[in-house]
Design brief:
Layout lengths: L1 E19 L2 E22 L4 E5 L10 H13 L3 E7 L10 H16 L7 H5 L5 H6 L3 E5 L3 E4 L6 E5 L7 H11 L6 H9 L10 H7 L2 H11 L3 E4 L6 E5 L2 H14 L5 E3 L4
Parallel strand pairs: 3-4
Antiparallel strand pairs: 1-2, 2-4, 2-5, 5-6, 7-9, 7-10, 8-9
């Protein structure tokens, strides 16, 4: 049996640079955070792909894990595989949970069946975030998601505010095509990040905020507590950033005094 930790991510910056073949061209920096789904894989003799979610209350609308496993099995003419997944990554938050599961299945099947590194074009058939999450760590994503480059980032302390109501990725992109959004040079962002002067920008934030009014509310709350802030993915989670631990703790204390009922996760263990 193979066990994989499929980590979530946040987008520090997300640009949309046009459309190619009805798909949006991206330029984004993602950073892995310390929350993950646990994926266990083993071969079976029935020659089938079998997926079981341990969390009884989780039923995915778009089972990317099953799609990924089936795609790899068919492309490499493999035997059957049984997969169980323990979900911890919040759904519909913009933290890449479904892509993390697909990437985790890809990593697990690579190890289980002793395959070479899987090509981005194969992974892209399941989702634009899958190649970057398969690569893991801090990554710059460009184009349709096929160009992924490891990046060095300075230490950032992160708090992720969660909402009960998620945002549909498709609905966010569709509305973006109507209302547009902000963009900011990723090269300039990376330079400013090391100078502690960065603007955290997400091109989908305007559209997603129209779909879920709590995004703007949570961002304003984080800003009022001294954090830099930006929505991640297509939302609905909003991330607060600090460059140093002291400022982060101070902001966290202010946040708890304002509303101690907030649902949140921290971006790292410390």
């Amino acid at each position: 049996m193979i066990e994989i930790k499929a980590y979530a991510k946040v987008n520090l910056i997300l640009n949309i640079n046009g459309i190619y073949e009805n798909r949006h061209l991206l330029d984004s920096i993602i950073s892995q955070i310390d929350i993950y789904d646990t994926i266990r894989l083993e071969k079976n003799t029935e020659n089938i792909v079998e997926i079981k979610y341990i969390n009884k209350d989780f039923c995915p609308n778009n089972d990317t894990a099953f799609k990924m496993a089936t795609l790899i099995k068919n492309n490499y003419n493999l035997s059957g595989v049984s997969i169980s997944i323990i979900k911890n990554i919040p759904v519909g938050a913009g933290l890449g949970g479904s892509s993390a599961d697909a990437a985790g299945v890809a990593m697990g099947m690579q190890k289980l069946f002793d395959l070479d590194v899987l090509p981005p074009q194969l992974l892209l058939q399941v989702g634009s975030d899958v190649p970057s999450m398969y690569l893991g760590g801090d990554v710059r994503i460009q184009g349709l998601g096929d160009k992924c480059t490891k990046v060095l980032l300075p230490k950032l302390y992160k708090i992720i505010l969660l909402e009960n109501e998620g945002v549909s990725t498709k609905a966010s992109y569709d509305l973006y095509d109507e209302v547009g959004g902000d963009n900011y040079s990723v090269d300039e962002f990376l330079k400013a990040l090391f100078e502690k002067k960065a603007f955290f920008v997400n091109a989908l934030e305007k559209a997603s905020s129209l779909l879920n009014e709590n995004i703007a509310k949570n961002k304003a709350l984080l800003l009022s507590c001294g954090f830099m802030s930006c929505m991640t993915g297509s939302g609905s989670a909003v991330v607060g950033y600090s460059y140093n631990k002291e400022d982060f703790i101070m902001g966290l204390n202010k946040l708890m005094k304002k509303d101690n009922s907030l649902k949140f996760i921290l971006g790292q263990k410390e």
